Amino acid sequence: MNYLCRNRTSYALNSTYQSNVVALLSSLAANASSSAVGFATGVVGRAPDKSWGLALCRGDTNTTSCASCLSLAPDIAFGLCRGVRDVSIYYDRCLLRYSDTDFLATPDDTAASVQYGVNKELNITSDPGRYVELAADLASALSGWAAHNSTRRYAAGAITTTSGEGFTTTSSDLVSTIYGVVQCTPDQSPTACQGCLGRLTSVMPALFNGTAAAQFNAVWCNLRYDLYAFYDGSPVVNLVAPPPPPPPPLDPASQNTNRGKDSENAATVIAIVLGVLVAVLASAFIMYIWSKEQAKQHAKEDEDAGSLLFDLATLRRATANFAEENKLGHGGFGAVYKGFLPDGREIAVKRLDKASTQGLKELRNELLLVAKLRHNNLAKLLGVCLKGQEKLLVYEYLPNRSLDTFLFAAETHLLLDWETRYRIIYGIARGLLYLHEDSQIKIIHRDLKASNVLLDADMNPKISDFGLARLFNGDKTTTITSQVVGTLGYMAPEYAVLGHLSVKLDVYSFGVLILEIVTGRRNTDTCFESEHEEPSSLLSYVSEQPTTSTPLETMDPSLDCQGQATESEVLKSIHLGLLCVQENPADRPTMLDILMMLHGQEASFAAPSKPAFAFGRGEMMDSEERVRLSGGPGTQRAAATVFSVNGMSASEFDPR
Predict the structure, then answer these.
(1) Which is it for strands 94-99 and 51-57: parallel, antiparallel or unpaired?
(2) Where are the transmembrane segments (predicted)?
(3) Burial zone of 360 (CB within 10 Å; 0-12 exposed, 13-18 middle, 19+ buried)
């Protein structure tokens, strides 16, 4: 137990302020113990006798133990801190503060204090510096987990030293595991919580006095470490400490004594060893050369996959065992969960549904493909976990999820101003140029669409979902496939109808996406007003507008198009989108051309021809087109458009 009585002001016994504190303590104990998160705040009375209070029970306490702990507070409030208006009380399983100032409105760490040897005092007698270093590493890992993965802002765990390393205490025990707990008040944001705990962690080495156990107390956050598992329940973080640094080299002067004698013996040993090595290497060299090329490619793939393997237990801890509260959404692959790794990285974990048709082979293909790609405008695949029935993909977490959740939702599309939209167009173009031209392997994405463009915290775009991507070796970037997969509306006609696959497929999809970004409408919408009576598709509607008209006629009405520069960018984007969706693939620009156009002037662009699949004036597809697009004989049905709400993949895999 620890407490802090701030003697800046006082109150008289049996005064109104004391009556308010009595009522406040009773209310806090009742509300915190009955709360799902063990937390309560309260205010009692009126100025100048108004009292503000806060109570927090440790994350592993139940209702009974929480109430029991908080019931001890009056002993300190009206005993050791009698007459003091501002008091903080810290027990092992709960804390409480009350004050005559509104500290709830301005959270700070002024109540921080340190308690050593919480239950019994033992000192670390061997390498105390490394002991507190590992305790701080544990606190840092727990802080990230508590801030981002726990509704109670609480985490418990342990760190264990590697084999052979341990710490000796004054009781002559050799210990190899440090246990810890961190907690914030659950009303704090993840950033505020991690910041509060980070400040406590940063002072641990400076305040370490050799004691094996310590508790750092603040009203808004606290942490504790000890030599035994003092908490209830299972730990959510289990770390293995890296080995200690090697000892410094010996003084060269101390090695000279026997150098002459050792040199003579060493020469004999070296001669024998070299003779044996020459014989062994000569016999093995030919076999090595023969087998090297056979195994090179397979070994490379295994290395790429092995370096990206995640342990199932790690991902269960990161997502609180795939807790519903951490679920971001559900796509074609399965559920997506937010998680937090022990090293502080935020992740998004896609978990394959048991009923999903996507299999192990497709999962491995995507892993090996995306593992080779590194670009600021591509979503980063961190790894995979394959354990029994569990198949999991681990991506970097992108807080703003997917473009479609902003672009097509009435409540969020207003957040996309024109500057942001133009930056998104430019970023997607850079990512596609990397896939087509600049990466070590040439890739056609095959499923570029709004739901497969993720947005980071600064609204920068990242292309995701490479489950349908096609890899090309060498300079060849065209082929014919009998397995047409993707999303209707974004598929180029030569691919959807004839199976002709080239980089111009992605260019077509990019053009459709540009027009969606400018207009704020889906390409499947058919409710546009047209000069003709028939409903007009997005592509037809945009192409029918006079090229000299103002962009306000086609752009999203919510955009405020002010200034010549903005109007020029809108016109340029519309013109560029129409160039990309031309029916003849040869007429469409390359991604390199597109980047140059984005930097150029719209007046210098060629005039686009009629968009492909722009059936806005009553034209009908012929019978062959209808059969192919409906999944008829000899073709495979294209994946239907799926609205992504989780920021991750919504496409179905298809075997290459």
Answers:
(1) antiparallel
(2) 266-290
(3) exposed
Report the phi/psi class of residue 24: left, alpha or beta, with left for phi > 0 and alpha for psi in -120 to 50: alpha
**Planar angle of CA 212, 218, 223, nearest 5 degrees:** 35
Which tens digit of pLDDT belongs to each residue from 36-58?
999 999 999 999 999 999 999 99
Helix-helix angle 63-70:16-34, to 10 degrees: 160
- Name, in order, each residue with C-beta under 8 angstroms of 232's C-beta and a sequence gap of 6 or more: 60, 61
Residue in the block written with tokens 């509607």: 541
Say how many C-beta atoms besides its own lie within 10 A of residue 588's C-beta: 25
DSSP secondary structure letter of residue 384: E
* 83-92, 168-177, 281-290, 603-612: the lowest-pLDDT one: 281-290
Return the minimum-mean-pLDDT range out of 101-105, 263-267, 421-425, 488-492.
Answer: 263-267
| CA-based nearest residue to 145, from 197, 110, 103, 104 | 197
Task: Indicate the SS3 state at residue 414.
Answer: helix
Exposed/middle/buried for residue 257 (C-beta within 10 Å: 0-12, 13-18, 19+):
exposed
- CATH H superfamily, domain 403-629: Transferase(Phosphotransferase) domain 1 (1.10.510.10)
Exposure of 281 by Cβ count < 10 A (0-12 exposed, 13-18 middle, 19+ buried)?
exposed
Type and span of the H or E element at 434: none
The per-residue pLDDT for range 617-648, each reduced to its tens digit, is: 333 333 333 333 333 333 333 333 333 333 33
Same fold for the pair 312-396 and 403-629: no
What is the C-alpha to C-alpha distance for residues 453 and 517, in angstroms, rounded to an integer?
12
Give domain 114-240's CATH superfamily.
Answer: Gnk2 domain, C-X8-C-X2-C motif (3.30.430.20)
The DSSP symbol for 630 reads T
Looking at this protein, which amino acid is placed at residue 172? S
Beta bridge partners, 451, equal none
Q: For residue 466, what are the CA distances in angstroms to 2, 255, 536?
A: 55, 59, 32
Q: Which of 28-37, 285-294, 595-604 has the highest mean pLDDT?
A: 28-37
- Annotated catalytic, 560? no
**Domain limits, the chain:** 2-106, 114-240, 312-396, 403-629
Closest CA to 446 of 476, 401, 400, 483: 483
- Strands, DSSP E only, in 75-112? 84-90, 94-99
Catalytic residue, candidates 86, 100, 404, 447: 447
Report field, pTM of the whole predicted structure over 0.70: no
Q: Note the pLDDT of residue 362.
A: 59
Helix ranges, 479-638 (H): 493-498, 503-519, 538-544, 564-580, 591-599, 623-629
Does 350 carry a binding-site annotation? yes
Name the CATH topology of 312-396: Phosphorylase Kinase; domain 1 (3.30.200)
Per-residue DSSP letters for 270-284?
HHHHHHHHHHHHHHH
Do residues 330 and 642 lie in contact, with contact meaning Cβ atoms separated by under 8 Å? no
What's 2-106's CATH class? alpha beta
Determine contact, residues 494/581, Cβ cutoff 8 Å. no
**Tokens representing residue 160 in the block:** 């264990």
